[in-house]
Amino acid sequence: MLRYLYTFLYILAAPLLCVRWVYKSFKPPQYREPLRERFGIVSKESNESIWFHAVSMGESNAAIAIIKRLLAKSPDLNIIVTTTTPTGAKQIHNGLGDKVKHHYSPCDLPGTIKRFIHRARPKLLVIMETELWPNWLHHLKSSKIPVILANGRLSERSAQKYQKISSLSKEMMGAFVKVLAVNNQDAERFQRIGLTSDKSIVTGNIKFDIDIPQFSDHEYYPVWKGRPVWIAASTHKGEDELVLKAHQLVCEQVPDARLILVPRHPERFESVARLISDTGLSMARRSQPDSWGENAQVLLGDTMGEMMKAFNISDITWVGGSFAEVGGHNPIEPAVLAKPVLTGPYIFNFNEIFGDLIAAGGAQMVQNEVELADRIVKLMQTRDTAHDMGQKALQVIERNRGALDKTVSVIEQYL
């Protein structure tokens, strides 16, 4: 009954979703192209496919790792990847090129998902992390298509919300043949909302299995070579002002300090550029090499898919989404490069990972921009401390590798 009510409300909201997609198409325009795909109108497959779904960039990276491993063993697999956002789509294109087919994810209406199933012909769906769409799961189960939740995460806050709609949650959990949880706590939460224990496997977090990329020296912004650099990565609205205030405080004690500021969403690049200019700090933009200069105090990271390059030239990292109540972002990428990690207090999306990093001495939490500035100054002034902190962060990553092999092994059982 709850699914029918949900579907009725979704149908009422569908016109507003269309208006939203059209509105968002103006910034960035990538949203304009796939509107038909949102309603399941995709090219028809001649062969059965393996369907992967990832929301955005982080989930796409995990999906890429799995898909590469599968294609290395079975190059002829017909793989379709759906993403919710253009950033996820670009990540899939950059990571896999024409080895897979990409579509934007169909909305959760019965007719839409049935149309998508008919055209895409999936024999297996692998959902990354936590995307629980009632109609998707109902119609996939009705079509006898197995569904695996890989790298499964469920926060305590989300678990409590799902418990309030327990009948719908149990129905959704019943559609999965396996849920591959990142740790015991997540596995317990999935079982609490209706997953049976025989479907639950703790595999660890695939993101720990990230490859350590090789970069040419200081390629992201070569003119800062030798300067002390810190990065504010994946910032959200309301955080940029705090980051810039912190950088001004840092510069009072370390005048040659430099900041890389990377907004989470590309549609905010221009507004953040104006914000930087309003502070009086001199600015360069990664996308505009003619603006590059040694004396620029802030580099706006206004390109996509280059975060690892930005981390590589940074001495200290601060992970965004943690001053705003977003819940933080993945700290594994800077940690795998042996960078000291700083975070704000809101980290509920990555509690376990940050907990491990903080306990090991590879990360530290700051409560506000003043504490952030103070910590950055101390790490810039004591390079040995910063180096030791980065090594401890890397050790946490190394201890937790192995989830990718376990995940691929389970998926192969359903191919």
UniProtKB/TrEMBL annotation:
Subcellular location: Cell inner membrane; Cell membrane
Pathway membership: Bacterial outer membrane biogenesis; LPS core biosynthesis
Gene3D superfamilies in the record: 3-Deoxy-D-manno-octulosonic-acid transferase, N-terminal domain (3.40.50.11720), Glycogen Phosphorylase B (3.40.50.2000)
Membrane-related topology note: Single-pass membrane protein
Example of a GO cellular component annotation carried by this entry: plasma membrane
EC numbers on record: 2.4.99.12
UniProt enzyme class: transferase
Highest taxon, organism lineage: Bacteria
Keywords assigned by UniProt, alphabetized: Cell membrane, Lipopolysaccharide biosynthesis, Membrane, Signal-anchor, Transferase, Transmembrane
Keyword Cell membrane recorded: yes
GO biological process annotation, one example: lipid A biosynthetic process
Reactions the enzyme catalyzes: lipid IVA (E. coli) + CMP-3-deoxy-beta-D-manno-octulosonate = alpha-Kdo-(2->6)-lipid IVA (E. coli) + CMP + H(+)
Molecular-function GO terms, alphabetical: Kdo transferase activity
Function: Involved in lipopolysaccharide (LPS) biosynthesis. Catalyzes the transfer of 3-deoxy-D-manno-octulosonate (Kdo) residue(s) from CMP-Kdo to lipid IV(A), the tetraacyldisaccharide-1,4'-bisphosphate precursor of lipid A.
Protein name from the UniProt record: 3-deoxy-D-manno-octulosonic acid transferase
Organism: Kangiella profundi
